[in-house]
Design a protein that fits this description.
Largest interface: A-B, 45 and 45 residues
CATH topology of the largest domain in chain A: Rossmann fold
Number of helices of chain A: 11
Oligomer: homodimer
Strand order of the largest sheet of chain A: 1-16-15-14-2-5-6
Mean pLDDT of chain A: 95
Low-confidence stretches of chain A: none
Cofactor (chains A, B): Mg(2+)
Helix content of chain A: 25-40%
Radius of gyration of chain A: 20 Å
InterPro entries (chains A, B): HAD-like_sf, HAD-SF_hydro_IIA, HAD_sf, PGP_euk
Largest sheet of chain A: 7 strands, parallel
GO molecular function, one term (chains A, B): metal ion binding
Protein name (chains A, B): Phosphoglycolate phosphatase
Enzyme class (chains A, B): hydrolase
């Protein structure tokens, strides 16, 4: 089914630019790497806004909440409103809302403060996350983790403070609480948590819980299109007039394709041109280019 | 293909007993639960020895080495020689020996001291395990884990001290060192690490590394029959004259069946009679009974 992608060029860029009303950007590997802005991003986003394009930032990284991401943009000198940000932490909260998660039930979180904040904003009681970072387990004979029977969902995202206590707590809730949901913010294998190297992503923690529970999660982040209905409501743009811009084939580009958007792969993140063109790869974006700042150069051409 | 199992009875027990020269026992859930001996085990093993049966203890728990398991048996009042014990920690070392693991290469271990000890006894250089238990990661921008390029294998077993440093280190070796092997001691989802409850097993840590590397491991413990060739050499008994006794369908019983042994499920561990008889279960042992001490009662009948 896949036809091979075209490199972004002066002629096809004009077609893309004219037909698209909203650009959806992944953040890590597209806007920044770790805490460093990718060159030319600020001017590129300004140019797009000045031409009347809508901008949306869709990130699978659940470590932060939308407001924390808005602060991060601010600290990097880019002004983005919280309403333009769709993080997988927010998606997890919206999923539970959409499922009418009972108000007497609680959520156990393996992941960051961002998930807890988004759940609080959605009036859902949650615990775990950072507060369990330093819990240790000494497997003596009388060692026993007592879990809360009112936990009705376990949300798992990236967690650099993963430990055996959290794994046991989440496993007990999913295995022993009838009907307990298992929600993954995303399943990215690795990500640029720091500028210098890639680190295990949420896919690592999610797989760990799959391994101990022998259950599969509901994924709310990319490539699941769960977030798309919220995007459509808010921006009132049809999917065919959106372009998803990302650095990952199996999340960003697949998400864009699943939703019926145009897709642009940037090579500033985890995907190399040779990986894109490898015969084993069957996910082909419409276009690819080095970084989003190429759009700035092409718009001036 | 599966026919349903028979409960052990005076008549079929006699057939089984007469046709079997060696009994292979799983340990956790069969001999003990955590650090507590299951009732009647000591007398049952004595009876089998007195009737000339060979005894072998085949455990997927890689936390301990064979000598550490022999000490555990001793501390529970049972005399077992190290040569009668086949642990998945030993299997990992034997697998690398069988593959002529180059002497200039090293092994990184996610797991317990038992794996390191078995690797040392096989003259293989290994590191990681307990020495990395307290390593922490602070994801600042300059944070970087440098890994040893001479690591040629990562061995993953149960590790209650699992942390993000270990996950990153193992992931880097597997992703970046050409030809680096990924070996799982076993993939048990959960196990009775303490008498009071089940805890995530090696299957949890192994899945985590699968999640971050997007690779599948070689499994050396049950249900893989890798250990069987060592068993056959040492005991000189044909598989059809062996009976595998265990509490898990997907490891112990499958292992016995894969090897062509007779199989006996005991209900003293993780498998209930209703799970055995559930239509979704397609692994049927030849026989089942409550605990191995039923063999003692039946031998007197």
């Amino acid at each position: 089914m896949s036809t091979s992608s075209q490199p972004l060029s002066p002629s096809n860029f004009r077609d893309l630019f004219d037909s698209v009303e909203a650009f959806l950007f992944d953040c890590d590997g597209v806007i920044w790497k770790g805490d460093e802005l990718i060159q030319g991003v600020s001017q590129t986003l300004q140019m797009l806004r000045s031409k009347g394009k809508k901008l949306v930032f869709v990130t699978n990284n659940s470590w932060k909440s939308r407001s924390q991401y808005a602060q991060k943009f601010q600290s990097l000198g880019i002004s983005v409103s919280q309403d333009e940000i769709f993080s997988s932490s927010f998606a997890a909260a919206m999923y539970l809302k959409a499922k009418d998660f009972p108000s007497q039930n609680k959520v156990y979180v393996i992941g960051g403060e961002g998930i807890l904040e988004e759940l609080r904003l959605a009036d859902i009681t949650a615990f775990g996350g950072p507060e369990d970072a330093n819990k240790t387990i000494d497997l003596k004979q009388n060692c026993f983790v007592e879990h809360d029977k009112s936990v009705g969902a376990v949300v798992v995202g990236i967690d650099p403070n993963i430990n055996y206590y959290k794994l046991q707590y989440g496993t007990l809730c999913i295995r022993e609480n009838p009907g307990c949901l298992f929600i993954a913010t995303n399943r990215d294998a690795v990500g640029h948590m720091t500028a210098l190297q890639e680190w295990p992503g949420a896919g690592c923690m999610v797989a760990a819980i799959c391994g101990s529970t022998q259950k599969e999660p509901v994924v709310v982040g990319k490539p699941s299109t769960f977030m798309m209905e919220f995007l459509l409501k808010k921006f009132n743009v049809s999917c065919s007039k959106m372009c998803m811009v990302g650095d990952r084939l199996d999340t960003d580009i697949l998400f864009g394709q699943n939703a019926g958007c145009k897709t642009l792969l940037v090579l500033s993140g985890v995907t190399t041109q040779s990986a894109l063109q490898d015969p084993s790869n069957n996910i082909q974006p419409d276009y690819y280019t080095n970084t989003i700042s190429d759009m700035l150069d092409l718009s001036r051409a």
